[in-house]
Amino acid sequence: MFDTMTTTKIIGGLCSTFLVFLLGAWLAEEIYHSGGHYGEQAYVIEVEDADGDEVEVVEEVPFSVVYASASATDGEALWRGCRSCHALEPGQHGTGPALYGVVNRPVQFYDDFNYSGALAEATDVWSPEALNAFLENPRGYAPGTAMSYNGMRDVEDRANLIAYLATIGG
Questions:
Q1: Which residues form a coiled coil (predicted)?
Q2: Burial class (CB in 10 A: 0-12, 13-18, 19+), 131
Q3: What are phi and psi of 125, to 5 degrees?
Q4: DSSP character for 80?
């Protein structure tokens, strides 16, 4: 089928193609870094007020203040992200436990749901502050929790959702 000369030509063609690609990559790298790899910066973009002396301090508002002005109506729209795993009817569980009356109730409230031990170690009662910390970063607040949610970053959204949950069965 193939004789020795044909096989040698095919291997030689592949090797020379590879060599051309290597040389092309080396040449492109030399052109891109024409002044050397660790030379001075070619130009500096001046930015106004970039001295670094003035650091803007962001004052964090306590959650109780944010929660006091929370909107349960806005929280109802945020509930859509939770209902794939939770239900609002008492005793009706999904992947997660029912959230009927969850605000200010004990963590392991339902006997017929298998809670992870990490939640009981984190807190005893789902106060608004505990729910806020849990919703911000579930795995950080209760390491080992079975909840796979990545967290809600905006404090106003968390406060609105907790305000909505407080109106359900509370």
A1: none
A2: buried
A3: -130, 140
A4: G
Under DSSP, the state recorded for 5 is H
pLDDT tens digits, 141-155: 888 888 888 889 999
The model's pLDDT over 24-44, given as tens digits with 9 standing for 90+, comes to: 999 988 887 766 656 666 777
pLDDT digits 0-9 by tens, 55-76: 667 778 888 899 999 999 999 9
78 DSSP 8-state letter: H
Residue with tokens 């950080």: 140
The secondary structure of 96-155 as a DSSP string is S---TT-TTSBTT--TTS---HHHHHH-SB--HHHHHHHHH-HHHHSTT-S--------H
72 closest CA partner among 152, 158, 170, 163: 163
Contact yes or no for 107/126 (Cβ under 8 A):
yes
pLDDT at 128 over 60: yes
Map out the domains of the chain with their CATH numbers: 63-167 (1.10.760.10)
pLDDT exceeds 80 at position 157? yes
